[in-house]
Amino acid sequence: MDDIDRKLIAILRADARTSVATLAKKLGLARGTVTHRLRNLEEQQVIVGYTIQLQPEAEPDDIHAWMGVQVDGNQTREVVATLLGDPAAIALHDTNGRWDLLAEVRASSTAELSRVLERVRLIKGIRHTETSILLKSYR
Question: Per the database record, which ranges form the HTH asnC-type domain (predicted)?
Answer without folding.
Answer: 1-70
